[in-house]
Amino acid sequence: MRAGETVTPNSIILVMSNPDVQQRAIDAELQLKGAEADLANLQATLQSQILNSRQRRPASSPTTTARSWTSKRTGNSPRTV
Question: 0.85 cut: is pTM over it?
Answer without folding.
Answer: no
